[in-house]
Amino acid sequence: MTSPAGQGTAGAEAASPPPRPSPASGGGRAAAKTAAALPPPQAGEGRGGGNAADIRAGDWVERWLPRAVQPYARLARLDRPIGTWLLLFPGWWGIALAAPRWPDLRLIALFALGAMVMRGAGCTLNDIADRDYDGRVARTRTRPLPSGQVSVRRALLFLAAQLAIGAAVLFSLNRVSIVLGVAVLGLIGTYPYMKRITYWPQLFLGLNFNWGALIGWTAAAGALTWPPALLYAGGIFWTLGYDTIYAHQDKDDDALIGVKSSALALGRRTRPFLFVFYGVAALLWAAAARAAGLGWPFWIGLGLAAFHMIWQAARVDIDDPSDCLAKFRSNRAVGWLLLAGIVAGHFA
Amino acid sequence: MAVGAAAFVRANSVVAPVPLVPEIRLHLASEVTPIWQATEETLARNAVPPPFWAFAWAGGQALARHLLDRPDIVAGRDVLDFGSGSGLVAIAAAKAGAACVVAADIDPFAAAAIAANAALNRAEIAIITADLTDAPIKDFAVVTAGDVCYEQPMAARATAWLRRQAARGSLVLLGDPRRAYVPTTGLRERARYAVPTSRELEDREVRETVVWQVLSEAAVAVGR
After folding, report:
1. ipTM summary value
2. Are A295 and A341 in contact (CB under 8 A)?
3. Nearest to B129 among A14, A34, A42 (CB)
4. A251 in contact with B, Cβ within 8 Å
5. Among A28-32, A317-321, B126-130, B176-180, which is the least confidently predicted range?
6. What's the whole-model pTM score?
7. From 3.20.20.70, 3.40.50.1240, 3.40.50.150, 3.40.50.720, which CATH number describes the B3-221 domain?
8. B5 closest CB neighbour out of A34, A37, A45
9. N or C terminus of chain B: which is more exposed, having fewer CB within 10 Å?
10. CB–CB contacts below 8 A, A to B
């Protein structure tokens, strides 16, 4: 779900990019279909002319994976992992926060697997739903389904396999975590419709994407208390920030087809609001750490993460899609810094 | 918009108020002839389209004036400006209190000009370079088009598209100084302005310009 244009180079992603896939599904939003049906942009500078396909030739999937496996890796968007990272970090934070000292590596591995297959399942489902449509758009024509590398039947089987792995991961956790994992399904179901009815689908994405903070904690500690709730709340504001930046890539197309986003709601006021979102996120994470009794090394990690978020808010050019994408992706660093802070905070 | 186009717009224009709409300032060509020749002759090789964005055409001026004088037409509503050029009409709609303004022009240089002009006038405008005549879009309460009937194929296509928007329930407004290919039926006059223009651009100093409401095919058929 990273690069809409997929070339992964700043220049090629500049100017009016095709509609972004949603971080949740990693694939096109229902409404993005209409926008992508618009004719390709006029030839001109920075419009990424030549190779419009959103699959990069010669990337690691092509170089390292067996040919038979490649289409499945593309369906699961293994070539664009930022969505998995952003889904995974809240879970890792929860695990680390609940740990006595070092986080439980078994849980760390299970959550990584779970985030990968569930995000992959969302992308696969999206590609199945959009297969006819994707074949008519230059950017998506080379995807595994429209290009005929994978049959619908096989894609469905692959989807089922990923969901089965996701379910197996969930059911290997303790009972509270299983209940939480099942409960979030209802929340996930509402997300695709939110961009039709509210200017704040980013809030609902945040509610979904940070749920792992709760499950991570309960998987490690057994019962919900204040620290994971505060961690979760902070994550929601973090998502509000980074996904507002992400939504600025497509604000013009969204306005035309009637899709709502926080980028449209905030417009020129985006920058001050980014400071607010990220500031509140940092405060809630600080409160979570206080409640969990983390020691002084945590504050170094949080400080660096906060510094990174301030840098994003201060420097992002909301009218430059490639810069929005770069700043959005850079949030992986926030994830690592906070994780490092939480782990280190146990060793004071 | 690409940096190159934005730089081109800035390098080939000066900021000046619009004669009939002095509350709006735009990046306009200081003199008509040099930029037109520059693009037509020198830049033809690089596929730079004629700089329609560098002029405040009479139809757009009248339409912008009308929206600013009658803000109730667009206040709180979604507005789509078709063939936006400099973005003049879109900016007027934003200043008149429109909820959401989308400016569409297939010329990427126009997109750069609209972005620059929107920033200059502190207007929030979404900019689209896709050809809307065969794109699915949401319902806009108001659709505006300034001066789009100056050449035949474009006028026919634009008029058909505007009538379809009217059929969908949009209020469709066309500003036109009696261009050659403006339709002769299915229009209802809403306002009339004497628009100051230049002899270099038009063949006279002042062009009488009408703001028309474009009616749907169905409305035309029943003779309304």
Report:
1. 0.76
2. no
3. A42
4. yes
5. A28-32
6. 0.79
7. 3.40.50.150
8. A45
9. C
10. 75
